[in-house]
């Protein structure tokens, strides 16, 4: 079976574990309304994706 030849050092192990956090979620500007949105997602404020409306956006109401 495939086995590691030798174990990694503490330094190498800890360097690997130190890297799992700290990813900033990338945001892009919506071309329709200029609002920040997640890439490859429909815009949450106007419901547009690829120049067409894909979801109906319910206006936020103050409660
Ligand atoms: Zn938008």
Question: What topology does this entry show?
Answer:
Blueprint: H1 10-17, E1 28-29, E2 36-37, E3 48-49, E4 52-53
Antiparallel strand pairs: 1-2, 3-4
This protein binds zinc ion.
Characterise this structure.
Strand 3 and strand 4 (52-53) form a beta hairpin. The protein has 63 residues and is of the alpha+beta class. It is elongated. The model has no long low-confidence stretch (mean pLDDT 85). The protein starts with 9 loop residues before the first helix and ends in a 10-residue tail after the last strand. The protein is 13% helix and 13% strand. It has a domain at 24-56. The protein has one helix at residues 10-17, and strands at residues 28-29, 36-37, 48-49, 52-53. It has 1 helix and 4 strands; from the N terminus they run H-E-E-E-E. Residues 30, 32-33, 35, 43, 45-46, 48 line the site of zinc ion.
